[in-house]
Amino acid sequence: MKLLLRESLKGVGKRGDTVEVSDGYARNYLLPNGLAIVASAFAQRQLEGEKRAYDARMERERVHAQEVADAIGKVQLTIPMRASEEGHLFGSVTPKIVTEAFEKEGITLNPRQVELESDHIRELGTYSFIIHLMEGVEVKSRVWIVAEKD
Q1: Measured distance CA(101)–CA(77) in Å, rounded
Q2: Record: fold of 2-59
Q3: What is the C-alpha separation between 51 and 55, in angstroms, rounded?
């Protein structure tokens, strides 16, 4: 079945593409979930109008994401954690803890946006990580893990 995609789907195509998929996949998943519409001249015009609105919205979101990226770049993030005398943490620093530290600085993030060097940080020190705000907008940041004072 020939369809026009209303959303980008991994392995199928990008938003606005005309794709050929199996009838069952189209009838049982893509069409009921509003992810695609049956290809026709009318549907093409409708999708072009949606695409213009989508592009305008994405540009506004990109500008906002860049503003957040600039704000993140100015933040010196320090996270105090309980640690042994050798510098091993009692627990670990996860993306959730990093996002909570950013919230204290007035920046709201989703833990899925934070990509640490490893899954969890288990030692005192300085670590770099990447924050994926949206497609095409990433910011590199650093965090200092220090021993919590008793």
Answers
A1: 7
A2: Ribosomal Protein L9; domain 1 (3.40.5)
A3: 6
Distances (CA, A) of 127 to 27, 93, 102, 111, 144: 48, 11, 15, 16, 7
pLDDT value for 130: 92
Give per-residue pLDDT as tens, 23-62: 999 999 999 999 999 988 888 888 888 888 888 998 999 9
CA 139 to chain centre: 12
Q: Looking at the domain 70-147, which fold is it?
A: Ribosomal Protein L9; domain 2 (3.10.430)
Domain ranges of the chain: 2-59, 70-147
Note if the pTM is more than 0.70: no
Instruction: Give the CB-side neighbour count of residue 150, counting CA atoms within 13 A.
Output: 3
